[in-house]
Amino acid sequence: MNNLTIKGTWTEAKGKLKQKYAQLTDDDLILVEGKTDELYGRLQQRLGKSLEEIKEVLKEYLVVPIEKERTMKKPVVFNKAMTLIAIFTLVIVSQGIIGCGASKSVKGGVIGAGAGGAIGGVIGHKAGNTVVGAIIGAAVGGTAGALIGQKMDRQAAELQNDLKGATVQRVGEGILITFNSGLQFDTNSSLLQPNTKTNLNSLSSTLKKYDDTLIRIEGHTDNVGESLYNERLSEKRAFSVEDYLSLQGVRKDRMTTRGYGEEQPLNNNLTEDERRSNRRVEVAIFANKAMKKLAKQGKI
Fold first, then answer.
1. Residue 61 in contact with residue 12, Cβ under 8 Å?
2. What average pLDDT does range 181-201 have in this prediction?
């Protein structure tokens, strides 16, 4: 992923972008900071402009116009077990600090205090800024992180009970939901299937109940077909999920979307089962600024 080279400071660039484009929110700009592809996608979504138009917009704020198409990296097989091993290792270390009797949420708070952002950065670098990396990187840690974790425990329990055919995992101070795209979409299609809409109806109800969270939606494919086509298809599928959730009353300013195509496989693409596991949509849920502020004040 290319890094942005801005004119002046990022704060100045953000101010200019917000002044010129009122549709952009603080959360938009925080989530895309320093990441070219994220900024492309977010501006396209908010402003309704083509990629070429967005590049023209960005020339005003960049030292070097970013017109070069990003190169396709060799996919890194990202196994969530690797992420959980890293988290588990930190749990072992932190137990020596907080004692064996501490709750899961409290342990998560201690982990977040010293390492949340660092782990998120490492995971994002190794696996292409994955949705798991976004969750870990958003951690605040400490007592506030433990309180957020307790709230996420309740939300995850509801989602686990309501969502059928989806995997719900508590990661750091957030929640990761994985939908297998084989259950959601026909081949080469981004149209949602009826059973997927049922799942998303349940998801939207929970998201509206816990409205102090941000939502990141990522689409992924297997490696069958052209890589550029797969990337665009994964983007369309992620947007389909966002659009449907929006129709159910989830605010769009809480959601960001991204399609990674075949770049982030969970498994090798050697068998049909492995390819099926790689065709998926992932949804990350993590605290917004308001929840973090209340958590730091001990008010959640």
1. no
2. 82
